Each structure stands twice: as C-alpha cells, then as structure tokens.
Q: What sequence folds into this?
C-alpha cells in the first residue's frame, strides 16, 4: 500500500504543504507559490522543493499543467501498489478519496472502487511496483467504465508513471534458445528477461539464476534486459528451493562480517541462570505433526 498522507506520519514541512494544498484557492500551486504561501521565514525555498519532490515520489502530489502541483485526491489520478494477475492484467486498491476538504479538515471520505488495468495499459509496470494510474472516469461518474470480477467492482485505469520499482533482481530459470533469457520463478512477473551473451556467468540450460535488471519493460517493449549475478542450481538439488524462495521475496541473506562474528560468538550452551527463568520441558517427550509438504523436518 502507498504511504498514508495522514499528517502525523510525515515531517512537519510535508504536513504543512499537504494542509496548504487542501485549502480552497490553493489546490494548484507552483513550488514558488507553495513557499510563499507557507509564510514561514524559517523554511527555505530549497527545503520546499525537496519536500515537494519527496511528496511526488510518495504519490501524494502530482505535477499538472506544467509544474503546478495538486494533491492526487483532487485529480483523476491514483497512486498504489500494482498487483499483477496470471493473465497479465493488474489491479490496485482504490482507497478513499477526499472530497471538499478545507484547511484543517479531513473532508468527506468517498470510497473509490478498486482499479483494473488491462494488460495493454500496464506500460511496463511489474508486480508490486508503486505506480500512478489515470482513471477512465472519476468514481461515481455515470460514464465511468466498470467491470465486475469475482464479485468485486472495478473501474478502468491506465498506468502513467512508475514511481518505485519493487524488483532490482529477479530469480528464475535460465534458457539458451533462441537467445539467453530468464523466465521469472514468480508467476506474477510475466516479463521474460533477455540476457546478453557475455553476461550469463556460463549458466546452463534450465538452471536457476538470480538476475540483476538493467532495463525494465516500458511502453515500447514487454521484455526486460539484465545480467546473471548468481547461479543457484537446479530445482530438485538439495537446498536450491529454499535459496530460490529467499531471492524471490528479497529476504536479506548476506550479512556484514561483524554480524557473522557476533553470531559465531553466541554460546551454544544455555546458562543455568537463564534456564531458571523458563519452564524446562526437556525431560518430556514432545511430538509434532507436520503436513505432507512441510519442509521443517526435525
């Protein structure tokens, strides 16, 4: 989910800019106008510009009509995390849109339907990317194109900007024909990654590899390009499935030397004073029952 624009979670300057842009008469301002109307002699123009940039990257404000800024809630745009489905289309959570908000007021909350993005309107967005979409019509407009999927209503939208990419690296299966490429292990990443001939690390057909993306898909191509940074092994080999899952979810697994040294120094024998603080069940026979597909065998 995108960061909340609720005031307590943001730096004070961010809060002041959001409150200013919520006021009637101030809902479309340039950077210089924002600085002027804040009327705070302790805030520099450079600090305002940095804050506006940060709010724009967080999907809170957007530049419209050149370089004049508005809160997204007053525009036909919406920022959220993309969820890609097996057939290639995407959906985003609709959230709540503020209507008629004045200074110091949260305004009336209007629940916005979830948003459906056709595969051809993804514009290179991948699963879990944080994006801005343009809605076909504002929520509640009778002309808004809606669709019902699995008992949920959606309005149509189109990706216009990708604010943050979720995947710097992608784990997948390496193939050599007709040219080197990798099919992501995560089925929600339906973008194959083309690998340069000199960036394969001599990976073999069918082996699982970790790829660093050099170029993401965009409006002109559905493919990404990248280079192999790690050859993991073949599915079925001991431990490979766990290594693949770690990289699929981007779980940190490489630690600084000082951390590894500290871990090595942790005693393996529990001191008596620590045992005294706990209920000691080591003298009892304890049985655990795992499911057929469990991996945590004792």
A:
């Amino acid at each position: 989910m995108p960061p909340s624009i609720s005031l307590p979670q943001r730096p004070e300057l961010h809060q002041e800019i959001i409150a200013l842009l919520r006021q009637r008469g101030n809902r479309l301002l340039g950077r210089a106008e924002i600085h002027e109307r804040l009327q705070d002699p302790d805030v520099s123009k450079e600090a305002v510009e940095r804050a506006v940039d940060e709010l724009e990257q967080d999907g809170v404000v957007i530049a419209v009509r050149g370089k004049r800024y508005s809160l997204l809630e007053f525009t036909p745009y919406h920022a959220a995390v993309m969820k890609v489905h097996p057939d290639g289309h995407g959906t985003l959570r609709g959230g709540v849109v503020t209507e008629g908000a004045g200074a110091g007021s949260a305004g009336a909350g209007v629940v916005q339907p979830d948003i459906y993005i056709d595969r051809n309107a993804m514009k290179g967005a991948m699963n879990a990317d944080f994006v801005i979409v343009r809605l076909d019509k504002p929520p509640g407009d009778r002309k808004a194109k809606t669709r019902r999927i699995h008992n949920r209503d959606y309005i149509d939208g189109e990706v216009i900007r990708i604010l943050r990419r979720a995947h710097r690296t992608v784990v997948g299966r390496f193939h050599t024909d007709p040219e080197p490429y990798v099919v992501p292990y995560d089925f929600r990443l339906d973008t194959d990654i083309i690998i340069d001939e000199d960036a394969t690390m001599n990976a073999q057909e069918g082996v699982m590899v970790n790829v660093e993306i050099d170029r993401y898909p965009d409006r002109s191509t559905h493919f990404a390009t990248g280079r192999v940074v790690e050859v993991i092994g073949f599915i079925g080999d001991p431990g490979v499935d766990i290594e693949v899952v770690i990289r699929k979810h981007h779980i940190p697994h490489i630690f600084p030397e000082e951390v590894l040294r500290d871990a090595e120094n942790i005693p393996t024998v529990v001191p008596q004073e620590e045992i005294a603080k706990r209920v000691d069940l080591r003298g009892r026979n304890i049985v655990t029952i795992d499911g057929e597909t469990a991996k945590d065998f004792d």
